[in-house]
């Protein structure tokens, strides 16, 4: 790639300030029709002078003078290299990582489209490895580094002898996001390409500059897809100076469903984990006990969540406080934690209902997410975010 540098001269324009005429003031004196002829001048009245407009100096253009290095010039070229200690290299390591290849961004490219078929990286991880501000708005013309599996590696098939020039067929057998899609084509030409359309079928679809040439006939398995939705791929065949194209659009569905009524185009990586739980609502929050971990989640009204081990053992004394009419005092594991939270100044209030067992489920919000979706009674879904090393996290009600 050639780089061009254009040096622009600077022109300094100097302009003099032209004074404006003084405002005329009418003196408050009687009007006379025949002014007297003075015999002498009043020394207290200054003589009237005619203002002089200064001349405007001509513009003097300045010619920039290139700085000339001093000393003896080197015998060899001296490359200018960016600082190898740039802090970005510590986290944006895709350009120097094995198994990554450069890709030239097209207008409208998105990482979720480019990463179809990549299973060992998420969209967010590739964005971070390339120092990208937005994985859905990539800088056109920029070079980013993608896993080598992104670049198509089809399986060639036999071409019938009587196949005419151009495109004979292009089909797509789409399944769910984990199984992906099988694209099959038959075409004859000097150069054949298959590539995803950056903005779907409704926008211009431009072949990537470093697209890989394909055999005349073949199949391509693309899986998995991180998102559900419609995808469009284009087959492009060149014969001489003429190009023929054909598009195929297919729909990808999620192999797993989100818990409850959670809606997201991102497909879950795993199904919900079924678990028996016990739930009790309070005036200022709720408690949930899980049978698989023997942990109690305390959700307080300020949107915070704390997780405690179930410390109840048979024979332990229950809280002795009597609840007002219509409210309840928690017992067993809930009661032990409730009493200690009250002593620490974290008040849930009285329980508004008895504790009750129900069939719950948990599901991670993403492969590397800190957030877990928890199924509550009556098909409510809580999003619980727990940060490693922090004693308290956050929760919110996202679906009902």
Written overview of the protein:
With 400 residues, this protein is mainly beta. The protein folds into 3 domains: 64 residues, Membrane-bound Lytic Murein Transglycosylase D, Chain A; 98 residues, Immunoglobulin-like (Sandwich), CATH 2.60.40; 127 residues, no CATH class. It is 6% helix and 30% strand. It has 3 helices and 17 strands. The strands form 4 sheets. An 8-stranded antiparallel barrel has the order 10-11-12-13-17-16-15-14. A 4-stranded antiparallel beta sheet has the order 3-7-5-4, with no helix packed on it. The longest helix has 12 residues. The radius of gyration is 38 Å and the shape is flat. The protein starts with 99 loop residues before the first strand and ends with a strand.
Provide key terms for this protein.
four-stranded antiparallel sheet, 3 domains, 400 residues, mainly beta, eight-stranded antiparallel beta barrel, Membrane-bound Lytic Murein Transglycosylase D, Chain A
Protein topology:
Layout: E1 100-104, H1 111-114, H2 123-129, E2 143-147, E3 155-156, E4 166-174, E5 181-188, E6 191-196, E7 217-222, E8 229-239, E9 242-252, E10 273-282, E11 285-290, E12 295-300, E13 304-309, H3 332-343, E14 356-364, E15 371-375, E16 381-385, E17 392-399
Task: Summarize the structure in short.
This protein has helices at residues 111-114, 123-129, 332-343, and strands spanning 100-104, 143-147, 155-156, 166-174, 181-188, 191-196, 217-222, 229-239, 242-252, 273-282, 285-290, 295-300, 304-309, 356-364, 371-375, 381-385, 392-399.
